[in-house]
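To: structure desk
From: M.T.
Subject: fold request, one chain
Message: Could you run this one when you get a chance? Sequence is below, nothing fancy, just the single chain.
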Amino acid sequence: MTTAPTDQTASGTPQAPPGGGIRTEGLCFGYPGRPVLRGVDLTVRPGELLALVGLNGCGKSTLLRLCAGLLKPTAGRVLLDGDPVAGLSRRATARRIALLHQSAPAVPGMTVRQLVRQGRYAVRGPLGMLREADDPVCARAMADAGVAHWAERPVDALSGGERQRVRLAMVLAQDTRVLLLDEPTTYLDLRHQLEVLSTVVRLRAERDLTVVMVLHDIGHAARFADRIVALRDGRLVADGPPDEVVTPRLLAEALGVVGRVGRDPEGGWPVCYPDHPLPDPPGIEDDNHFH
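Reply: Done. Structure tokens follow.
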């Protein structure tokens, strides 16, 4: 199956492809002797902002890469708006879903404009990338991420927070309806964490995006996400709105800490107070959800 390039309105404004729903059915993945995901059933609704949380190694990043078509499941399948990812070419998938990896190697001398243009590869192809001029999608991506005024600056001369906004502009330049963000706040100080997450929330509303992001900070997940999904040992163990799933039990069973949960007096979202790590977090023997 192939997907047509992004359409434009009569005014020339680029439009993202329709849809934005993701569904995984019995999704399994692993390596010899080490299963990573063990039968994950998950539906992400169009326009939703979902946060994936859990301990290191629980399968969060693997789940994102499977949804983006970068890995092949050992069992089960991923559907994008009802279409199996396994039936799409790599470029066709990249026209519909964009993944921001945890980190990317620096390219000495590459400017912000040049890096953001890499996001147009799925639409333009290798020959189209030889053209120097930015298209409207690329220009909009830089403007939306607030990096247009850095266009000619070398990426390696920017701060960590600035580079992360440039990388966000690069995935926006793919012009997809779905964004997968793998730990977008890693290595950032608190100010830049809030800046990046606020930008994601704003762009999700302005562009009508579906966003799935891996976060380590349960406080940020509770504040910014519509829905939290927790993984433990490759199984989905919690799924629901922050008000329902952010509990002391979630802290213990999915994050391995003893803690308390309160309420922000102004915003009303759950606030977590971790007290100490569990020496050996209890195992989860099945994939029943708790709320």
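Reply (cont.): The first strand starts at residue 7 and ends at 8. Let me know if you need anything else for the meeting.
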